[in-house]
Amino acid sequence: MDLELLYEAIISGILLGCFYAAVSLGLSLAFGLLDVPHIAHPSFLVLGAFATYMLGLQGVDPLLAGLLMMPVFFVFGLAVYQFYYSTFEKRGTDTGLRGIAFFFGVAFIVEVGLIVAFGVDQRLVEAPYIGTSTRFGEMRIPNRMLVAFGVAVLITTVLTIYLAKTFTGRAIKAVAQDEGALRLMGADPVRIKRFAFAIATATCALAGALLIIVGPVDPGLGRLYIGRTFCVVVLAGLGSMSGTVVAGLILGIAESIVLASVGAAWAPAVAFGILLVVLGVRPAGLFGR
Amino acid sequence: MGRFVIGALAVLAVLAAIPLWVTNEYFYFAAYVVLQFIVLATAWNILGGFAGYVNFGSAAFFAIGAYTAVALFKAVNLPLPLQILAGAAVSGLLGLGVGLLTLRLRGIFFSIATIAVAIILETFIINWSYVGGAKGLPILRPTDAPLHFQSYLQWLFFVMGVVAVIAVACARYVQTSWLGRGLRAIRDNESAAECSGVPTLQLKLAAATLSGALMGAAGAPFAQYLSFIEPVSAFSLTYAVNALAMPIIGGMAHWIGPVIGAILLGTVQQIVTVTISSELNVLVVGVLLVVFVVAAPEGILGLVAKLRRRVGSTK
Amino acid sequence: MQHTRRKLLAGASALLAATALAAPGAVLAQGQPIKVGIGIAQTGPLGGGGKAALLGLQMWVDDVNAKGGLLGRKVQLIAYDDQSNPAVTPGIYTKLLDVDKVDLLVAPYGTNPTAPIMPLVKQRDLLLMGNFSFDANAKIQHDKWFNNAPWGAGAVAWGGTFLEAGKALGGKTIAFLAADAEFAQNLATGARAISKAMGLQTVYDQNYPPNTVDFSSMIRAVRNAKPDIVFVASYPGESAALVRAVNEIGVGSSVKLIGGGMVGLQFTPIMEPLGSMLNGFVNFHSWVPEKTMDFPGVADFLKRYQARAVQEKVDPLGFYLPPYNYAIGQMLEQAVTATKSLDHKMLADYIRKNEMKTIVGNIRYDAVGEWATPRLPMIQFQGVTDKNVDQFRGPGRQVIIAPAKLQTGNVQPFDKLRK
Q: What residue spans define the domains of chain B?
């Protein structure tokens, strides 16, 4: 393959990779730290994308729409976790299967619900940075990728700092490591976990906006992102937030190179392929606890 | 055991006799789907209900069975029963492979791996032009049907009925044997089972292989049935959701649960598909799934048992 | 309590359904309507075109019934949505035949949903009126298939005309981009053969999976290969995405001609948002409001269609499919009235031997059921502005640049028409 094409693929891969990291943050939190089998996370992303689309029809800029929807998604996340906890985690046996099946059902309902509401067609948003590109030497990079990259870096940084520096953030990491100890220290682990899940869901609002900025969205897109988000989270290692960025970059660059060399037909398999390899060889991931 | 064999033979006799008075082709078209789901639901339950490992990629095993049959039919014009055996063998191996890769890990990883396998295999098939790739492959069904069946579709209907009976017999065997006891121990508390000496990995692998093989058998006649095969519909999410929902709604503890779930949901879906939009129909399945998982985890069987207990206690 | 009730209900309805489906077909009385059955995309990628097409066919049914029906009987149209999904069509057509018991069949819109039912109609020996399929009968060779599409058999009228235009602009190298789906692959294969015969050198050739949304990587690769001509065979969503990608990162200054087989650039809901991004693309169409295509009856039909289209929320201009679907109805009407029968063999023989008079011109069929004389305009988008549907109502925006018998303007190099 042409060296110039390879170079362009790597650059696109880096931009794409940071975007993948950003959309996986919520899952890293919900599944990596809280052990919730959140198969419905990509569906929440698509939900966020459609919310952005709806606001876009009213003329709202997609990034602004994403920010506006964050509090809404936060509350939604609180409700979902509360329901999940009281129905599944409190009881004893058989919860594993039921919890997984529950989220699978939720993911499915979201997808089909969106189809019933919007049809199967792809939806786009318009913004001044979508459809234009900037010249970097010989290469023209679409501005939507630059915007996605920028926002992705921002969310990731904010979330990492939050978890490391603030009291609640550290409590979230603590509850992941040792729930019992946290209880002894007087904090309510359930409240913290619920809060963390709500944050994870809130990121889906902004990440969903990025999703529809990067490309057209249709209700079935969630299934493809199950592979990408779980690949990033598992490759990073459960519980490692910063590892998410590294894993995202690896996935983004791999996909870009495959796209440029072998063609678009194999691109969806890259994420799932990496995932299977990691599960087989080193299930703890790169930085897992 | 005796009662079951008599019952099974009776069912087969009825299935063979139906073509004597029902001539409408569309009936067989719809009934085939219900029988197919009985096999899929029963197969899913062997690993899901009995052992507690949730397979999201049922479509992969189903589709690989279908494509194996297609490839062999195209290459050497293999007769239908051998196509089914071949489909079952390949899907069984696939089940074994996925199991070896992930059954040592927690349940959720097995589930994600099944999705991964489904997408990867779909991508692979899309790129395999011998079986039509993304365009698909039209298949000309044989014009004559064996025995007294008037059309090949009626023959396919009967053959799927036979496969359904075999699947249920396998599930019944697993449930009542030492295999079933071991799997139940794994489902209830895997670490405890390990400590008591239950060979958990081998049992799980056996269940995964059998489950995969039966799904492959369900998929093998698919191309003949539709006269056409293409990847998107063969790997469709509806198979994964139905294979999951039917046992959960019917009841996972007993082999008859998936059968009830399949007949109920399958029939309703066939009726509803042409009258209401098919998305609404599939949405209903999803909603029922969540409702049952949350409120009635033992399925219809559990509700019946609870009712019996309540009725019994008031006597 | 719930479950037993539900089970009873399900059991009862299943029993009811089984009895209803299994009951022997009712004997057709003389007063019964003539049923025309079709499964056609109303949702999914082809939905935009399918809805407009169905309105065209429905208008024919209404017109025929206003004149007293066919053979003294009313005509009834039974249509189901195939969701642009090929796997759904066998079920739909089996239902149309065995449950609805239709007398006449029209094929789904498009090659992809039609391919799966070819074995079915061949085995049951039925007449099937093709609806904008490409080479769907090439392998099966069914003798009762008549496709209503202006490109005829094979890619000569389509790819050939496009590539000739490219050569006339001085093109020597070519790139191919085709979706991995029945229609696109059939067309691209034909185009490749013609390209080879013309002596053009292939510098890039890529198939992509259907419903691909991101073409930036492929457009970059195309630009890298520096072709003079780019031949694309794509479906609506992909066509739109490709136009956007070309607009976003550019296809390179070497390209003189791009387009060819991009389905979807004829649908008004897709054309309107793309606006000026379309300028320069050369693509196939079936009917445009240019003076060489003013067949008797078509202007009147379009006026009536456009009035109804606004209410029914379908393609407001309706150039691409509705006239052809109306014409399918006209052909059935002509054949049934002339043979005074619904026998499929008699109808097929009639259509094979006679000239069919429709609002899209007079049509004669060849031995494989395609138009014997193709009439496929290659148009170039010129001077298109943004957010303006009405600009397409008259001539001048979709200029016919080939073939010579339909030409209304000259082809410009791609670069010249891009700002």
A: 3-232
Give per-residue pLDDT as tens, A158-202. 998 888 888 888 888 888 777 777 777 777 888 888 999 999 999
ipTM topping 0.85 = no
* Pairwise CA distance, residues A148 & B205, whole Å: 43
- The total number of structural domains that make up chain A: 1
Chains that touch B (3 or more CB pairs under 8 A): A, C
Residue A21 CA, chain-centre distance (Å), reads 7
Q: How far is B297 from chain A (nearest CA, A)?
A: 8
Distance from chain centroid for Cα A38 = 11
C237 contacts chain A (CB < 8 A): yes
Q: Is C13 on the interface with A (CB under 8 A)?
A: no
By the CB < 8 Å criterion, does C289 face chain A? no
Whether pLDDT at C19 is above 60? no
User: Cβ separation of C213 and A216 shorter than 8 Å?
Assistant: yes
> pLDDT tens across A114-137, in order?
988 887 778 888 888 888 888 887
Show the 3-state SS of C67-130: CCCECCECEEEEEECCCCCHHHHHHHHHHHHHCCCCCEEEEEECHHHHHHHHHHHHHHCCCEEE
d(CA C83, CA A210): 29
pTM: 0.85
- Whether residue C276 lies within 8 A of chain A, CB to CB, comes out as no
Beta bridge partners of C234: C262
The answer as to whether A46 is a domain residue is: yes
Q: Torsions phi, psi of C38, nearest 5?
A: -150, 140
Residue A183 is assigned to a structural domain of this protein: yes
Domain-located, residue A129: no
> Does the beta-carbon distance from B307 to C181 stay under 8 Å?
no
Q: What is the mean pLDDT of chain B?
A: 87
- Give the whole-angstrom CA distance, residue C151 versus residue C128: 18
Look up the CATH number of the domain holding residue A150.
1.10.3470
B226 in C contact zone (CB under 8 Å): yes
User: What values do phi and psi take at A111, rounded to 5?
Assistant: -60, -50
Q: Which residue has the higher pLDDT, A90 or C335?
A: C335
The residue of C248, C253, C274 whose CB has the most chain A CBs within 10 angstroms, and thus the best one to mutate to test that interface, is C248
